[in-house]
Design a protein that fits this description.
alpha/beta; 3 domains; Rossmann fold; 9 helices; four-stranded parallel sheet; Arc Repressor Mutant, subunit A
Length: 198
């Protein structure tokens, strides 16, 4: 049975040493640990097909509603990058936007959705991608052999929800009463909402 060093095997398969080591640890490939720094892989037993998921590039999308949350946006991206490293994904691109989750004209998100190379799009929460219609996006991407991977499925960020509610109210008021009058009515509504919060 032919055996080669783990580093050689990784090079032969076109993957990183870290990925090959993970395959060894999870039993995807078999081998013998000769010393603390040397692992010999049984080439004859190694699968011919690499587990695709581990070698695909990940595209990260992060979003916050307002510019005052810019620091949170940076931390959000770092948390998603750490998740990708843990999953063995190579991060190809990180995309971040400051915009409401209700806004359906976000150019950076649209760029990712249109990019057929983006097989895995990773977001921290569903609502970072969109407040409504997440399942539509998810299903459309699945039809193309792509997917959205959500790090944390729990609900979050009350302040962001409030910002989206304000956006909805402003939009509807503007449509019903015209821009100028709508602005005054929405301002009163916002003040009333903030008063209730206190």
């Amino acid at each position: 049975m032919k055996k080669i060093k783990l580093a050689e095997y990784a090079k032969m398969m076109g993957v990183s040493h870290k990925t090959a080591w993970r395959w060894y640890k999870t039993g995807t490939i078999t081998g013998v640990k000769m010393s603390a720094r040397t692992i010999l892989i049984d080439v004859d037993d190694a699968p011919e097909v690499i587990p695709v998921e581990t070698e695909q590039g990940a595209y990260i999308y992060g979003r916050v509603s307002t510019s005052r949350d810019k620091e949170n946006l940076e931390r959000q991206i770092e948390r998603v990058k750490a998740y990708c490293r843990g999953k063995g994904y190579q991060v190809v691109q990180s995309v971040s936007e400051i915009a409401s989750g209700m806004n359906d004209k976000r150019p950076k998100l649209m760029g990712l959705v249109k990019n057929e190379q983006a097989k895995i799009i990773v977001v921290e929460h569903k609502d970072r991608m969109t407040r409504f219609g997440f399942n539509y996006l998810d299903e459309l991407l699945k039809m193309q052999g792509r997917r959205i991977e959500v790090v944390d499925l729990s609900e979050n960020q009350q302040d962001d929800l409030m910002q989206d509610l304000v956006s909805i109210i402003t939009s509807f008021c503007a449509r019903l009463y015209g821009q100028r009058r709508g602005g005054r009515i929405s301002q009163k509504t916002i003040q009333a909402l903030q008063g209730e919060e206190e």
